[in-house]
Amino acid sequence: MKILFYAKFPVPNHGIKKNSKQIAYNRATNKSFIRSSDKALRAQEWLMVKLRAEKFKQRIDTITQDINIKFTFYFPETIYYTKQDVRSKKVADLSNLYELVQDVLQKVGIIENDSQVESHDGSRRRPIKDNTTWLEIEITEATP
Fold first, then answer.
1. pLDDT digits over 33-72, tens only?
2. What are phi and psi of 58, to 5 degrees?
3. Torsional class of 59: left (φ above 0), alpha (ψ -120 to 50), beta (otherwise)
């Protein structure tokens, strides 16, 4: 299985697109609309800068073939576990964690479109003995 892109780096937090919405008001049209929260927008912007730098550093062209993406979302143990030593229900759903990262991979041109993703085999949330939140991304060729 050929690795097409790999990166692992600390992140300020794991952004979630789906649950980070808020109602805003457009004064020009006098209408309300739903938009991403400031926190989600900051997470997206930060990730865009980081992944653009990784794309440049690795000198990769936009990936256009079908792919497998393995995401590992690392959380400090103090966030991942409750005081009773069980996984916290406040840790985001794995499927919700994918969305922001996949959208950013597409926006910065690492992948052409997130519809290329054939699987997320091996993706997971993991506790880490660290006070830092980490993100690991491995993109490989899809297996037939």
1. 566 677 778 889 999 999 999 999 999 999 999 999 999 9
2. -85, -5
3. left
Q: What is the pTM of this model?
A: 0.86
**15 and 100 Cβ atoms separated by less than 8 Å:** yes
Instruction: Give the CATH number of domain 3-141.
Output: 3.30.1330.70
d(CA 82, CA 110): 36
Report domain extents, the chain. Answer: 3-141
Locate tokens 């005081």: which residue? 83
Strand-pairing partners, residue 119, are: 68
